[in-house]
Design brief:
The chain is α/β, with parallel strands linked by helices and 331 residues long. It has 2 domains: 2-132 and 259-326, D-Maltodextrin-Binding Protein, domain 2; 133-231, 3-Layer(aba) Sandwich (D-Maltodextrin-Binding Protein, domain 2). Helices cover 42% and strands 19% of the residues. Strand 5 (162-165), helix 6 (171-183) and strand 6 (188-191) form a beta-alpha-beta unit. The longest helix is centred in the first third of the chain and has 23 residues, at 7-29.
Length: 331
């Protein structure tokens, strides 16, 4: 009879049965107070070295100390985050496999057809950890000194420029496409598998321009290898005070930040979700963790599960609208 039911019903049924099994095991074994009894895995849907990987390793180190178990970062790159996100959606909802992802979870529904997961139905929000602006940047050997220079050259030579992003469907990709739309310029998108590879493409002059979240770029900006043209936050970044915002560069209302957040598979027992939320939020407020995150290019958020759920729903709608305006086609 189950075969005749819809996919959504079968998914809910499987989740419910799994959750009941986990809850029963907790009650029978008295394991609820002992969670976690083995290592916890963060599935990160991007390669090592990118913005999401950086924050995952900062949090993993902190939680390993407070949870009393190793927290392991498992990078599952591919498909602009879809491979890792789908793997997390299929994981057993017992609190031992979690998803630590960027805004890709909210953007991808606007850019990909037939996703193997539903960002709302398949995940339980734990906490929005941090957010960061995106940054548009070039190699310091470039003769482009400002965003106005880039726009002027792109208008003079419409086929000259390409730009690197962490992948199709990332917030950084949409930020660059919005710049193209509002500035009336053309740049060819070159997607990479994460922020780290996208940054290295500009360092190597494989692409002339980059658009990624700030974390992997900031050390190279400060080190003189890359030149930031503008950040996409509402205000200048505290440690890059000379870099203007997009708003200051002539684009009113141009704000586009990237969050990193922690999710559990739907059906994870509420007590475990609450424990993880409390532990993660407390960890992000520890001075050494806060300093490490800020030094890596993040602002601490440490929000509640309810706040993350609301932001996720809002970001999905905003991303769909932005993708439509920018003419970004679903794949």
């Amino acid at each position: 009879m189950i075969e005749t039911l819809g996919c959504d019903f079968r998914r809910v049924l499987v989740r419910t049965v799994s959750a009941l099994a986990v809850a029963a095991a907790l009650c029978v074994n008295g394991a609820q107070a002992a969670y976690p009894e083995r290592p916890v895995v963060f599935l990160v849907p991007f390669p090592p070295g990118g913005p999401t990987d950086i924050i995952a390793r900062i949090l993993a180190t902190a939680l390993s100390q407070t949870l009393g178990q190793n927290v392991i970062v498992d990078n599952r790159a591919g498909g602009s985050g879809n491979v890792g996100i789908a793997a997390a959606a299929r994981a057993t909802p017992d609190g031992y496999t979690l998803l630590l992802t960027s805004t890709a979870i909210a953007v991808n529904p606007a850019l990909f057809k037939n996703l193997a997961y539903d960002p709302i139905k398949d995940f339980a929000p734990i906490t929005e950890l941090v957010n960061a602006p995106n940054v548009v940047f070039v190699n310091t050997n470039s003769d482009i000194k400002t965003l106005a220079d880039l726009i002027a050259q792109a208008k003079a030579s419409p086929d000259k420029f390409n730009y690197a992003s962490p992948g199709h469907g990332t917030k950084s990709h949409l930020a660059a496409e919005l710049l193209k739309l509002r500035a009336g310029i053309n740049m060819v998108h070159v997607p990479y598998r994460g922020g780290g590879p996208a940054v290295q493409a500009v360092v190597a002059n494989t692409t002339q321009v980059g658009s990624v979240a700030l974390a992997p770029v900031e050390p190279l900006i400060k080190g003189g290898q890359l030149r930031a043209l503008a950040v996409t936050g509402a205000a200048r970044w505290y440690s890059l005070p000379d870099v203007p915002t997009m708003i200051e560069s002539g684009f009113p209302g141009f704000v586009s930040d990237t969050f990193n957040a922690l999710f559990a598979p739907a059906g994870t027992p509420r007590e475990i979700v609450e424990r993880l939320s409390n532990e993660a939020r407390a960890a992000m407020q520890r001075p050494e963790v806060r300093d490490a995150a800020r030094n890596a290019g993040y602002e601490i958020v440490a929000g509640t599960p309810q706040q993350l759920g609301a932001r996720l729903a809002s970001e999905i709608e905003v991303s769909k609208e932005l993708a439509a305006k920018a003419g970004v086609k679903a794949e």
